[in-house]
UniProtKB/TrEMBL annotation:
This is Cobalamin B12-binding domain-containing protein. It comes from the Bacteria. The keyword Metal-binding applies. The lineage of its organism: Bacteria, Pseudomonadati, Pseudomonadota, Alphaproteobacteria, Hyphomicrobiales. Belongs to the methylamine corrinoid protein family.
Length: 233
């Protein structure tokens, strides 16, 4: 029986969710949208659809991406399918006040117009339940500071793909220090030419090798920050 012949409505909830994991893995946008619609019709809450069908599906994609089984083009297809499903869920989640894991602003730094890695991180983070404000490419320090002020995120993410634009990340961090706001935010940096040492040298909280690692690291850092605040540290 081919994918085309499969009637998603004939599946039980459990089978449908498993099928959606497979469809996300294969980057099948229309099937994901249909699956989301069916689960909502069956009385699933938007948050349950998000976590059990979409986030869990993207978690599987993320693991295989990290382990080199899936590659960027395939993950982008999965992320686009996820995005289509999120398109239906986002307004419903806003209405029901579903819990957000955290909020992140992310952008490629000034002088750099590469955005595939950044887009992937945005989509994976959104897929994990974060609210993501994507500033796009070629962002001067003013863009970051304005976005921080407007959105009050938990995380500030910066991306660079050129060795010449990497140092600009330090400019942004230094500006945050100067304004006395650096310690209020988790700063995460990523991009092909970066490494752990560079992240530490510029004073970032974390260097993220790839999108899958970013999600895990972000959750971990937010949990730690909340624990510190709870302890009054």
């Amino acid at each position: 029986m081919s994918e085309d012949d499969l009637d998603l409505r004939s599946l039980s909830d459990e089978e449908l969710v498993e099928q959606m994991h497979d469809d996300l893995y294969d980057g099948l946008k229309d099937e994901i949208v249909e699956g989301v619609e069916i689960l909502l019709e069956r009385g699933w809450t938007p948050y349950r659809v998000l976590t059990e069908a979409l986030v869990e599906g993207m978690r599987i994609v993320g693991i295989d991406f990290r382990d080199g089984i899936l590659f960027v083009p395939e993950v982008l297809l999965s992320a686009n399918a996820m995005k289509a499903g999120m398109g239906l869920l986002r307004p419903l989640l806003a209405e029901t006040g579903a819990p957000k894991v955290g909020k992140m602003i992310i952008g490629t730094v000034k002088g750099d117009i590469h955005d595939i890695g950044k887009n992937l991180v945005s989509m994976m983070m959104e897929g994990a339940g974060f609210e993501v404000i994507d500033l796009g490419i070629n962002n001067p320090v003013e863009n970051y500071l304005a976005a921080i002020e407007e959105h009050q995120p938990d995380i500030v993410g910066m991306s660079a793909l050129l060795t010449t634009t990497m140092p600009y990340m330090k400019v942004v961090i230094d500006a945050m220090i100067e304004k006395g706001i650096r310690d209020k935010y988790i700063v995460m940096v990523g991009g092909a030419p970066l490494n752990e040492e560079f992240g530490q040298a510029i004073g970032a909280d974390a260097y993220c090798r790839d999108a899958a690692v970013t999600v895990e690291m972000a959750k971990d850092l937010i949990a730690r920050k909340h624990n510190q605040l709870a302890r009054g540290a």
